[in-house]
Each structure stands twice: as C-alpha cells, then as structure tokens.
Amino acid sequence: MNGEGNESLSKTTKSILAKYGIRLNKNLGQNYLIDKNKRDQIINFGDISKEDIVLEIGAGIGTLTIELAKRAKKVIAIEQDSNICEILNQRLKEEKLDNVELINKDALKIEFPKFNKIVSNLPYQISSPITFKFLDYDFDLAILMYQKEFGERMNGEVGSKNYSRLSAMLYFKCDVKTLTDVSCESFIPKPKVDSVVISLTPKESMLDSDDFNIYSKFCKALFQHRNKKIRNALIDSRHVVSNLDKKEIKKRLNDIKDDKLNDYLTKRVIVLTPEEILFISKELNPLFND
C-alpha cells in the first residue's frame, strides 16, 4: 500500500504539471514533495485540528495545502508564482475546499494574516529570511522542511561549525527539534541534498521586545565575523549597531573599564553563548547609541 500511495502522489504531481505545461525551476526552490508517506508524516507532526489557522509558505500545487485544509479551520497559503497559484486555485475548487485563503505574493514582503500554526515545505533560497520573519509573530507550533545543512545550523552548539546567527537567535525564541530526514529522492526535480523536517515551539519569552531587538542587532553584527574577536567584529560591523564612525567606536571600546566586559571583547564570537552575547549587547548598546 505504501508504494502505491507514493506512486499515486508522484503520478498526480507529474500529471498536473504536464497538464498545465509547467516546468519547475530549482533555482526558485520549486522542489515538489512526491513521497506520500513523508507528506502525511509532516501533516501529522502539525497535529492539526478544526481550531487551527495554518500558514503555509510556498504552497505550490497544493501537496500539503489540500490535506491541511481538510483538517484545519483555515489555511493561509502563500505562493509567489502566479501560474502555479492559478493551478492551486483550480484544484481547491475541484476539491470543493473553501477554507483556503490563497495569496499570490512574495512571503517576505507582506504582513501575514492571523495564524497559530505554520506547516511548510519552504523554498530553500528564502530559508533564512523567512525563519527570521517567523520570529516576529506569535504562533503555537511550526513544522518546517529545510535543507539538511540549514536544519543543522538551527541547533548549532556553541563553538561548533554549525553555531550561527540563526542558532543564537532561535535560542531565546523557540525549542528546535529535528523530527525526520527526507531523502532527495522524495522530490521532483530532485535536489542535490537531503532535507530535514524541524519543529519550532515558542518558548515563554525571556526577553522583552526591546532587549531582543538589541540582541538581534548585535547577533547580526557579530556573526558576520564569527571567527574574529568580539572587539574586531564590532568595529568591522559598526554600521549594524551604531551610527558612530570607526575612530569613535574604537575610542569607546578602549575606554571601557569593566574587567568582565573587556574579557569578553578579547574572545572570538563563536565561543560566546547566547547569554554572553545578550550581556554584551545590553552593556554596549547605550555606549554606542548615546
């Protein structure tokens, strides 16, 4: 039965694309899931009920959308490609599903309508900016598919090659859990790398919005130079954290008398924990922006 199910999703996808003369563009992240077992697993991870409003980014021809709509109160499906969007609209009519709000726009450039869950096979080329955008919204659960390497960076340990701005930002916002791997064979066109399904579960807020915004700014500056010492990284990325010129930033850093802070400034970015970066950001922000 499993083989038949996978074959039918693969056949259905290929048939729809052939019917409308659609050639998928890997450069636009148009890799469509054709493994029914993985599709069903992803939807089950979302634990969707008739109370849920689900946001889907990169809806495509509706591989996830249609099944989500059968379970959810509402699905907000965002698809940038107008031709693909029209196909999905037609499929929703054929399925007699009227609880999908289909938005034909760039997900990075719009405000999202109200939702409480996210379930998406994300276009790979927007993985980073769309994940940072999610952090600006309140939600209960996100089930997201990423390239495997990107997924590993989301949970990168301090000091490791996977420790990044992404893992530091997520640290205060969400619990990140790897749920399942997805082979490159599960898509058309077949990508060069395997994928991974990740869950994000928001944490009780440890920071107010002002502190997080300051922390976010310093993370962006520091991780542009992750192997440099904190002092040098801040000087090189001063435009992210301050309007002061290089000479003034250097002077203010040299004038710091606090031994603990000075000790941190001599360490490399990659060895500092999120808590230590938060401490630095809260101490230095007033110094750089008076």
Explain this structure to me?
With 290 residues, the chain is an alpha/beta fold. The chain has 13 helices and nine strands. It has helices at 2-19, 36-45, 65-71, 82-94, 127-134, 148-154, 165-171, 209-222, 230-236, 238-241, 246-254, 259-265, 274-288, and strands spanning 32-33, 53-57, 74-78, 100-103, 117-121, 141-147, 174-182, 187-188, 195-202. Strands 4-3-2-5-6-9-7 form a seven-stranded mixed beta sheet. The protein has a two-stranded antiparallel ribbon with strand order 1-8. Strand 5, helix 5 (127-134) and strand 6 (141-147) form a beta-alpha-beta unit. Helix 8 (209-222) crosses helix 13. The protein starts with a helix and ends with a helix.
Q: How large, in whole angstroms, is the Cα Rg?
A: 22 Å
Helical content, roughly?
Answer: 40-55%
Strand order of the largest sheet: 4-3-2-5-6-9-7
**Tally of individual helices:** 13
Q: How would you spell out the order of helices and strands?
A: HEHEHEHEEHEHHEEEHHHHHH
**What about the largest sheet?**
7 strands, mixed
Shape: elongated
Spatial gap, N to C terminus: 67 Å
Q: pLDDT under 50 segments (min length 5)? A: none
Structural class: alpha/beta
Mean pLDDT: 94
By DSSP, the count of extended strands is 9
Fraction in beta strands: 15-25%
